[in-house]
Structure to design on (253 residues):
């Protein structure tokens, strides 16, 4: 057990170093922060020019921050989760790093644990930066961070399996697109009420809705039951897919 923990610790240090050394991964980590800064400027200017009275401005500001913080969660989880897991593993397979680790008596489970730790940690750090760039109230920080970690679980687990299934980085690009698109689906719900009901059922739809409830101060209300159920269902789906495919995919590669 101690030997396994030491291996995982060494792998975490290696994966974290690779994250900072890889320009593509570094850019992907900065992209959600950049989008939040852009949204804050563009949407803020739009509302300022709309000629709203004080009450309307407050209401509009609340809706904007709900969208912005929800979008931050979706973009960060989708982009970073898929990039670190799918591209990171595919790159290691191309460079034969993964095979070398296996020959050095490192198990597939230890590699997976390291990737998951680094991915979730990177998502948490970028989420934290996005929160303050977007202008979130400190009172919402705790639920925001918890939702970011919980929401990342199904995406990270599925991305891990997809990364192991990739043969090279070209294949990784093909597999990562559906993950990112599925993560961004909730952002389009604000366009139409009927569409919002559909996007609420997406992998991050529950997290997006729960963040809105947190901003409204209704996270502990009965309204949170449905999005909590959706989030729990997707976590179960992610765990089932991971359990069903991980051994076979890791063995084949």
């Amino acid at each position: 057990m101690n030997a396994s923990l030491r291996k995982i610790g060494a792998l975490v240090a290696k994966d974290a170093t690779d994250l900072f050394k890889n320009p593509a991964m570094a850019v992907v980590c900065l992209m959600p922060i950049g989008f939040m800064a852009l949204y804050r400027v563009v949407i803020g200017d739009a509302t300022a020019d709309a000629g709203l009275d004080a009450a309307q401005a407050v209401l509009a500001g609340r809706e904007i921050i709900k969208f912005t913080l929800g979008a931050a969660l979706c973009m960060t989880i989708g982009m970073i989760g898929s990039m670190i897991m799918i591209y990171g593993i595919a790159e290691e397979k191309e460079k034969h790093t993964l095979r070398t680790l296996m020959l050095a008596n490192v198990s597939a489970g230890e590699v997976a644990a390291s990737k998951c730790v680094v991915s979730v940690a990177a998502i948490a750090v970028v989420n934290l930066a996005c929160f303050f760039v977007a202008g979130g109230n400190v009172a919402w920080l705790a639920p925001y961070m918890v939702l970011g970690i919980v929401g990342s679980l199904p995406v990270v687990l599925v991305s891990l399996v997809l990364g192991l299934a990739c043969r090279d980085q070209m294949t990784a690009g093909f597999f990562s697109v559906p993950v990112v698109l599925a993560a961004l689906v909730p952002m389009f719900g604000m366009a139409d009420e009927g569409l919002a009901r559909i996007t609420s059922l997406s992998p991050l739809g529950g997290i997006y809705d729960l963040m809105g409830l947190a901003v409204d101060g209704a996270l502990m209300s009965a309204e949170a039951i449905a999005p909590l159920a959706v989030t729990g269902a997707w976590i179960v789906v992610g765990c089932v897919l991971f359990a069903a495919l991980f051994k076979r995919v890791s063995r084949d590669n």
Notes: The chain has one domain: 2-252. The CA atoms of residues 161 and 245 lie 7 Å apart. Residues 2-252 form one domain. The radius of gyration is 19 Å.
